[in-house]
Design goal:
The chain is mainly β and 647 residues long. The chain is built from seven helices and 31 strands. The strands form four sheets. It has a 24-stranded antiparallel β-barrel. A two-stranded parallel sheet has the order 1-2. A two-stranded antiparallel ribbon has the order 11-12. β4 and β5 form a beta hairpin. α2 runs antiparallel to α3. The two termini are 17 Å apart.
Length: 647
């Protein structure tokens, strides 16, 4: 009945752009921060549900477009103040600091409706329920304690400025209900209130936070994402309700955000149980933490024993002061554990590892905008110990050219349990580097961008028992002759140094170099039919490993009823794991899928979305991966289903 009623209702779908897709793929290649891509996608979906009111000309509102720089936000606000209302999203391309590519990226996340007054805010109760089911077969491990499928449920209730969020997850192999009282393996919830006066935000329950450049505190996405991204995010303050599924990197307690004239104050207090490996001392002196367990899977007796075994108490306060064109900030945070951390320093890379029960960090940051230049930086320190320093520069010497530079230095002993800064590992320590990129609109429809990141590791690290160097370079050319065609060529170079385990005696380092090429073509054949073709090639000097893939995507939306179909067929061949390739897939809402393709075989999937107006969205996805090995080919299949209700 719902389908028949809404047969003619075909609202425009807000799809992730090509730029966002490529950023998500790049994040997936950094195995230490794979969760960041999902957080990025989640924030973008939030923007599609509550688009930014462009013509409000309010910099706080515009800053919700978190992928824009401070310079772009200011330029956008100044343009609206001086010229009045923006009537078309494509008008943005003519503003200093923007181009057509970036304007098209913004379209799904903005509205050009006039700003609403605070008195006009709706207090109507809105509900959103999202339920996902995922299973894979054949089952890879029969020793798990629970059922093989994964369940994820998200519920949000909002009424004006008040919102309630509840998230529950059961991973594959975990028990559906366990403990006393019986609950899902992970359950999270919060109550939040947002305002525009002195009190800006209040959260009780689970929340995340990000301040400055993230060296001290950042449980959200990293502040620097892509070597060839047209924009570059500098520091901003954020306390937001937690709705993700990382079971350890969030806070549980209360958070408050105030703003009085030019002064901002944010504070939080938290007590959260996290996973860890506990062992007893050899002298029977008691128990201590050997390592933290970050995977979040509790599907065996060993992993279940690590669940919620440690209590982390955390608190902090952040102060900001807004000048005319500048903002300065000061942040202090502290984390304290119920048991001390004593890492057995059997490996040289563990010499600078954290030891003790409490860790404090103090940070100072700034950002300033003048003319066509944005300067931003942050200095953080574990008191009396090591420091982390970041200095960035973004400027536009011409309307069609933007340049970004970033210097960062992290002492080997700098420790931040909830920090995540630009182009760093999950811990962020033991790194010195310089990054630079540019984006140039060479012609009316031609965009050229390139970037380079040079890294130096002054101390030993995992799989490398000596100081080492690393390099990442990338260049991209995009051609957009019209609204129906997009062509892109990308070249990537990576160099890193790792131990050579095959040589006897003392480890020696070998340089691992990979070169990758990608060409893609996206063509909108009809308003309801699009084709995407892509070719990847990768070569690695280690064992002369090579890999390639060729994929074809088809997306078709029926005109007579609200059904959309995505189909992909991909063939690939790689010599080993070193030459693996990644390919972003359209997936369920608020989630992502970027499988690593290795070996020789094929990957295909079909996904169907059925909408009942704006009230219901049902998605079903079936995928199959076939690997050709000696003997019978191996097949791995997956089935995903998701129901979203808005009422």
């Amino acid at each position: 009945m719902l389908l028949s009623i809404t047969a003619e209702v075909l609202a425009q779908e807000a799809e992730l752009s090509e730029t966002i897709t490529s950023i998500a793929e790049e994040l997936a290649e950094d195995e230490n921060n794979a969760e960041s891509a999902e957080l990025y996608v989640e924030k973008l979906y939030d923007l599609t549900e509550k688009p930014v009111r462009l013509n409000s000309a309010d910099e706080k509102e515009l800053s919700r477009l978190f992928f824009l720089t401070d310079f772009q936000i200011k330029a956008l606000a100044d343009y609206i103040h001086s010229s009045g209302v923006i009537y078309s999203a494509y008008e943005i391309a003519n503003i200093t600091g923007f181009n057509r590519e970036l304007a098209e990226t913004m379209i799904p996340f903005i509205t050009i409706d006039k700003a609403r007054s605070s008195s006009g805010d709706s207090v109507r109760i809105k509900n959103r329920l999202l339920a996902s089911f995922i299973t894979r077969f054949p089952r890879s491990d029969t020793s798990f304690s629970g059922s093989p499928y994964k369940l994820l449920t998200r519920y949000k209730l909002s009424a004006g400025k008040v919102a309630v969020n509840i998230t529950s997850e059961k991973d594959s192999g975990e028990k559906l209900l366990a403990g006393k009282p019986p609950l899902p393996d992970f359950i999270s919830g919060n109550l939040s209130w947002s305002g525009e006066g002195i009190i800006r935000k209040v959260i009780i329950g689970d929340f995340g936070a990000r301040f400055g450049m993230g060296t001290n505190l950042n449980t959200s996405i990293r502040t620097g994402l892509s070597l060839t991204s047209p924009g570059y995010m500098s520091g901003d303050e954020e306390i937001r309700p937690y709705t993700s599924t990382d079971e350890n990197n969030f806070f549980r307690g209360a958070a408050l955000q105030l703003h009085l004239n030019k002064t901002g104050i944010s504070g939080y207090i938290s007590s959260n149980k996290i996973d860890a490996t506990i062992i007893s001392g050899s002298d029977s002196s008691g128990y201590f933490i050997k390592s933290f367990y970050r995977a979040g899977l509790h599907n065996t007796l060993v992993s279940s024993a690590k669940k919620d075994i440690i209590t982390e108490s955390a608190f902090g306060i952040n102060l900001t002061y807004d000048l005319k064109k500048s903002t300065v900030g000061l942040l202090w945070s502290n984390s304290r554990f119920s048991l001390p951390v004593i890492i057995p320093r059997t490996e040289n890379e563990d010499v600078y590892g954290f030891q003790g029960r409490s860790n404090s960090i103090i940070s100072a940051c700034y950002r300033t905008v003048f003319s066509r230049v944005v300067l931003y930086g942050e200095l953080s320190s574990n008191p009396g110990k090591s420091i982390a320093f970041i200095q960035g520069l973004s400027f536009r010497p011409a309307d069609r050219l933007s340049i970004n530079l970033l210097w960062r230095s992290f002492d080997p002993g700098f420790i931040s349990f909830h920090g995540s800064s630009p182009f760093s590992s999950s811990s962020g320590n033991n790194l010195k580097g310089i990054f630079g990129n540019f984006t140039f609109e060479a012609a009316k429809h031609l965009f050229i961008s390139a970037g380079c990141d040079l890294r130096y590791y002054p101390w030993m690290r995992y799989r490398c028992c000596a100081p080492s160097l690393g390099t990442i370079q990338e260049a991209k050319i995009r051609y957009l002759p019209g609204e129906r065609l997009t062509a892109e060529i990308r070249w990537n170079f990576r160099s890193t140094m790792l131990n050579d385990p095959e040589l006897p005696g003392i480890y020696k380092q070998e340089k691992i170099i990979s070169r990758a090429f990608r060409g893609s073509l996206n063509y909108l054949v009809l308003d309801n039919l699009s084709l995407y073709l892509r070719l990847d090639y990768k070569a690695v000097n280690k064992d002369r490993s090579k890999g390639w893939l060729l994929l074809q995507d088809i997306k078709y939306r029926f005109r007579s009823f609200p059904v959309t179909i995505w189909y992909r067929y991909c063939i690939f061949r790689t010599d080993d794991w070193n030459s693996r390739l990644y390919a972003f897939e359209n997936d369920l809402l608020y989630s992502m899928s970027i499988p690593a393709l290795s070996g020789s075989g094929s990957r295909s999937y079909i996904m169907v979305s059925c909408k009942a107006g704006k009230f219901m969205d049902l998605r079903i996805k079936y995928g199959i991966t076939e690997i050709k090995a000696s003997g019978k080919p191996e097949q791995n299949q997956e089935l995903k289903a998701q129901l979203r209700l808005l009422f």
